[in-house]
Every structure is written in C-alpha cells, then in structure tokens.
Amino acid sequence: MKTKKGFTILEILVVAVFATLLLVLFFIQKSNIDAMERDEDRKTAINAMYYALEESFYKENGYYPETISEENLKVIDPALWTDPFGINLGDPLSSYSYDPADCKDGKCKEYTLKADLEKEDDYVKRNRN
Length: 129
Hints:
41% of the residues lie in helices and 19% in strands. By secondary structure, it is an alpha+beta fold.
C-alpha cells in the first residue's frame, strides 16, 4: 500500500489558527508596550517642566507664570513641549495641561501640571513652594 506524503487540511487549519493566535497576541502586546512608552515620555516631559518651573523660573522671579512656553522656560528641550502625538501644550487636544491658580497681574502662587496617561492614572505635579 502506498502512503501519500503531505499534510491534511485539518493539520494545515490547526497550524493557521495557531499562527493567527500568536500574531494577535503579538500585536496586543506591542500596542501595550507602545502605550507604556508614550506614558513614560509624557512623565519625562512633565518632570522637565516641573523642575524648570521650580528650579529656574520660581527661583529667579519668586512667582509662577500664568502660561508656560518655550519663551519663559528656555531650559527645556523644545521637543518636550509636544506630546507623543505631536500636539503642543496649550492645545485643547494635548495630553499635557498647565493650570495656574491664585494669579494676579500675570504672577501666580500655584499651578498644576498634568499629563493624561493611557495605561495609568493621570500624572500630576503641583507647585512645591
């Protein structure tokens, strides 16, 4: 009796389903890792803004600004002003926000910096002085 060489349709189907499951798991993990990386980038930017406000701006002026930008916080890398999707701080769609409080004549006593994260709760920094 002759034996036929090759695979049955059932064997090919099982391998195809298994390969599909592996690809789906890979892309889900990749998506999670990418989101966590974007969250870390957001935290880095908020920390840079926070330390620039505290160690540079407040020490020189004795108050916090009503708005922050490249003009009044020159010590920050310009790339940090845009979120991972390329949207600038101050734009309504940005994942970054700066909210000053207790302001008079453009001089504020308090502020809140916030980044909207994808995989964690919002990352918030408040003035320390």
